[in-house]
Structures are given as C-alpha cells and as structure tokens.
Amino acid sequence: SAAAVVGGGVGLGCYVASSDWLSASASLFSLGGGVVRAETAPPAELARTDEDASAVSRSVDDDVGKFSWRLLGSLLLPDLHLLLAAVVASVAAALLNVQIPVGISQVVDSVMRLQGADWDQLKTVMGPALRLLGVYAAQSGVTFAYISLLGCVGENLAARLRRRLMATLLTQDVAFFDRHRSAELLSRLSGDVQDFKSAFKSAVSQGLRNATQTVGSLGYLVAMSPRLSAFFLLYIPLVVAVGLGLGSMLRALSKRAAAQQAAANAVAHEALTQMRSVKAFGMEAEELRLYEGQVEEAAALARRLALGIGLFQALSNLAVNGVVLTVLCGGGVCIGRGELTAGELTAYLVGVQTAMRSAANLSPLFGHAIKGATAGGRVFRLLDSRPCIEIDRGRPGLLTELAAPVSAGQDLVRLENVRFAYPGRPDAVVLDGVSLTVPSGCVVAVCGRSGAGKSTVTQLLTRFYDPTDGRVLLAGRDLRSYDPGWVRDRLVGLIPQEPALFCATIRENIRYGRPEATDAEVEAAARLAQAHKFIKAFPRGYDTHVGERGLAVSGGQKQRIAIARALLKDPKLLILDEATSALDSESERLVQAALQQAMQGRTVIVIAHRLSTIESADYVVVMGNGRVLEASALAIFRV
Ligand SMILES: Nc1ncnc2c1ncn2[C@@H]1O[C@H](COP(=O)(O)OP(=O)(O)OP(=O)(O)O)[C@@H](O)[C@H]1O
C-alpha cells in the first residue's frame, strides 16, 4: 500500500510539476549564473568600432555610480500611494502563492481518503478544493492589482523622467551639443528611460514577490520535513557552482555579441542617415560590404551564444529532474516510514518548485537591475548638467533692451580684443585678438578664407558661446549683462548658410521663434524674403508641409523661408551667412534678391562669399587665421 500511495503522489506531483518544472529549470541553473540571455538591445551609444563598444562598457561603472535614490524618490513622490498599494499587493500575491502547496496537500489527502463517489464522500473533498479555489482567486486578484498599479507607476515615472530630461537638454548651451552627439541624447531619452522603467518595475514586482516567495516556501519546506529539506538543500550548492561557471562564460559572450551588434547598427545608421552622400559617391556596394562584415561577425557570436544557451538549458533540465528524483526517492522513504502523507509529498514537490523558481527568478533580476541602474545613471548624469550660459528669463539685473539708445552710425556692436577657443577643443585658438565694430544701420561684410573664424564671430554675437578673453559689447555694455533669451529672441536674427527647417508647414516654419505672429505678418515677412510667390504657387500655399528636414522644398526655397523666419522677428541685428551651397543660378539670384531686400535699413553682418555682397556693404572686414587682417586701427575700412 505504501507503493500505491507513492504512486498516487507521484502521479499528482508530475501533473503539478510537468510544465512549470521545465520553465523553472533554466532559472534554477541561473541561480549561480546571473543573467544569461542574448542581449538584443545595443549599448546606449551607437558604437561604430570595437573600441567604441568597449568604451561603452567601461563607462557602466561610472553610470551606476551616478544613480541617485534621492532623484528617484522625487520622481516617484507623486505616485507614492499607488506604489505602496502595489508593494502590498505584490507581497500578498507572494504569501498567497506560498499557501498553495498547503491547499494542494489538503485536496490530495482528501482525495486519497475517498472510498466511493457518493455525495457525502465528495463533500469531504469540496471543502479543501473550495479553499484552494479561494486562494487561487485571491492570488489572481492581487496579481492583477500589483501588475496594473506598477504599470501605471512605471509609465508615469518614464514620462516624468523624459519630460525632465528634455527640459534639461533644451536649456543646455551650444557647447553641450558639441560634446554630445544627437544619437546619444536620443538614446538617453528613449532606450535608457525604457530600460530604467522596466528594471524599476521588475525590481519592485518580481524582486519583492520572488524574495517573499523564496523565503516563505523554504520556511514551509523546512517546517514540513526538516530531513527531506536538508537533503534537498545540500544538492543546491552543486547546481549553483556549475551554473556560476557556465553563466559567467555566457554573460561575457552575450556582452561581446551585443557590442558587435551595436557596431553593425552604427554602420547601418551612418549609411542610412547619410544616404545622399553614399549615393553621390557611389558607395552603396562598399557600405553593404562593411555592413555585411559587421553583421556576419555579430551572427557568428550570436550562434556561439545560442549553442551555449542550449547547453545551459539542457544541463538545467538535468539538474531539475535530479531534484525531482531526489525529492521523490527521499519522499517515498518518508512515506514508507509514515513521516509524510502522499498529499504532503505532493505539496512538498510544489513547494520545492516554488522555492526554486522564485530564487532563480531573482538571479536575472540582479542583471536587469544593474542594466536599469546603469541606464538610469546615464540619464541622471545628464539631468545634472548645468549650462554655462543660462537662459534665465526675467532674472533681475539682466538687460532686456539696449543699455542706451544707439542712433544711426553709432556703434551697436563692438568686439574688443576677443580671443576664443571652442570648449571641445580648448587648445585650438580660433579667434586670436579680434577687434571690430558694427555701426548701427550699416552692412558689415566679413570675408576671408574658410576656417578663418567668420562664423565663430557670429556665434559669439548670438551668445552661443562666450569669449575666452576680451569683450563683446552691445550698446556699450558687455553682452553678458543682457538676458541671453532676449539676445536671441529680439536682438539677433540669424540666417545660416544651410538653414534647417522643421517637419511642419511653411507657415509654422516661418512663425518659429515668434509663435504669436499673425498670418498677415507671416505673409509680409515672406514677401520681403521673396518667398510669397512660390509659396502661393503650391496647392496648399502656406499650409504646405516641408517634409523631414525641409526635403520637400528646394535649397533656394528653403533659404528664402529661413530669411522670412528671421525677418519676422524684426531683429535689430541681422546676421547672415551667404549660401555657397549648391544653388542653381536662378535660385541664387532669387536668394540674393531676398537678402538685399532683407538688409535694407538694418544693421547687418554678412559673411560674404560674393564680390557683389562685398561691393554693396558699407564696411568690409577681412579675416584670416583667427585675426582681423590689416589689423591695427584699420580693422574696418570703407570700401
Ligand atoms: N563647434 C566647434 N568645435 C570645435 N571647433 C570648431 C567648431 N566650429 C568651428 N570650429 C573650428 O573653428 C575654426 C573656425 O571655424 P569657422 O566656422 O568660424 O570658420 P569660417 O571662417 O566661418 O569658415 P567657413 O567659411 O568655411 O564657414 C575652424 O578651424 C573650425 O574647424
């Protein structure tokens, strides 16, 4: 009869265990090994080379170090009540899970006691079965509660983090964007916030739940059969040791595969974003060859990883089946001695499974948490960035109008012995003692060889950067005493050589920078910029979409939209970089006409590339090697 009892127990045990045992098996092994899975997401930066990829992994420790609990607390504060409710529900789900083996044991034992199928007999099973059903139902309820609550908390956390990060990025100075590539910043905003959110969610839900379940189940197992538990607990360290060795090998391989995939992505990213250049130079085949090489390397690593994961899984299954066999043999002996009932053995098996699965689930969570903390650290590091030139609108003491009225012919802007090196290249002096004056109402043409520092002068005037030495004066006062926001909004209108349009309508693009402008004002600016006619010729007129980066309009049209945009602000100082890019002669004539019109009656600094512009200017400044040539007192001379 003991054999029959064991047989019954085994039958039920196998039913309970069959599917979950296998899913738990890999996890049991990973108890020692930590995270073992193919990392499909590339590292945060798009690494073009192996060196880039290893630099990415080198920065991981720094980034984890930047993780701030205080900042996390402040981000979670508005949802604290939801978070607490989720924590309570998660712990409740775990504790209910620990109750399940008890319920199963009672059901099995009452089934084993059945002598017939009459109603009175069945009633003895109904009680334990309904109690177990109640536990299942309650567990489902709290599981629903904690998963949905944590989902909301996680999404709110990500949205708050993204908002804060975007606000921080938008307030950084231009030097910041010299240091950080846009792909990197986008990766912070999307991938890193996503990783951080999911790590947070799994740490709270899975971490809390599995830790509670592990401790609860082990306690239950030891209480049920200390002898069987000692047997089972001795077996675990062996499994952990093997898992540890294999797991760390696979982790290293997984890291290398991810870095290689990132390198392949970087090649694709560059080719796809520079498609015009690729096509213009006929480099399609070369780019494909480069990409194929990188992809093949990544695939080779991924194949090795797949083999390793297969081996890992197979050994895990073996280890888990070993546990089942051990518990069954030991349990059979206990049943034979009358120390356990069949129901208790079944419950014990379920308890072992719960303990193993829960403990094993904790293991990948460490890796997940480290990944999340690293991603969070990278985001938090950016949140700490402080711009050197702060747009601090309304700060008392900052001027928001000219320090003194400047009449025509008087100095509006003056550079006094300005020296400058870009923060990203502090050793390369770009401006080396530049002095020049821009009288109000005059057109000053700045010319000189490429790289002479002409655009750099305009960048100082918009306060994208501050001089390293010397001063920029506006109406006799240092430009630093003016509100930088006012300088860019109201004082300076900038028309760059290659203007960027936003993916919006022409009207929205012209209005950019002065959103309150009326349609009539937008049209007036477009007329001044010689743009009204071609805009009206489009079927949707001002509501025509210019496409991504303005690709749906021609180079010359883009230039004139940009001129209209600058004129709409009616700036006191117009800075324009003459377009030398590929405009056909008709477009060039139209843009030139628009610029001549725009310059009428304004103070203008024009970076001149054409003789006609220089001829029509009031003053000409010739620059070379970061200096105003012909230096001395004749830095500016009448043509
Ligand atoms: N953001 C930057 N960071 C570091 N160096 C820069 C940066 N921008 C420009 N430079 C360097 O500063 C020098 C002057 O550049 P600038 O653009 O002012 O020259 P330019 O006279 O306007 O040339 P071009 O006529 O070709 O536009 C160049 O050597 C350039 O490489």
From TrEMBL:
Pfam families: ABC_membrane (PF00664), ABC_tran (PF00005)
Keywords, sorted A to Z: ATP-binding, Glycoprotein, Ion transport, Membrane, Mitochondrion, Mitochondrion inner membrane, Nucleotide-binding, Potassium, Potassium transport, Repeat, Transit peptide, Transmembrane, Transmembrane helix, Transport
ABC transmembrane type-1 domain location: 84-371
Any GO BP annotation: oligopeptide export from mitochondrion
GO cellular component annotations of the record: mitochondrial inner membrane
Membrane topology note: Multi-pass membrane protein
InterPro entries tied to this protein: AAA+_ATPase (IPR003593), ABC1_TM_dom (IPR011527), ABC1_TM_sf (IPR036640), ABC_transporter-like_ATP-bd (IPR003439), ABC_transporter-like_CS (IPR017871), P-loop_NTPase (IPR027417), Type_1_exporter (IPR039421)
Presence of keyword Transmembrane: yes
Chief place of localization: mitochondrion
Highest rank taxon of the organism: Eukaryota
Domain ABC transporter: start-end pairs: 413-639
Subcellular location: Mitochondrion inner membrane
Database matches in SUPFAM superfamilies: ABC transporter transmembrane region, P-loop containing nucleoside triphosphate hydrolases
CDD domains attached to this UniProt entry: ABC_6TM_ABCB8_like
GO molecular function term, any single one: ABC-type oligopeptide transporter activity
Stretches that traverse the bilayer: 80-100, 133-154, 230-250
Family: Belongs to the ABC transporter superfamily. ABCB family. Multidrug resistance exporter (TC 3.A.1.201) subfamily.
Name of the featured protein: Mitochondrial potassium channel ATP-binding subunit
Lineage per the UniProt record: Eukaryota, Metazoa, Spiralia, Lophotrochozoa, Platyhelminthes
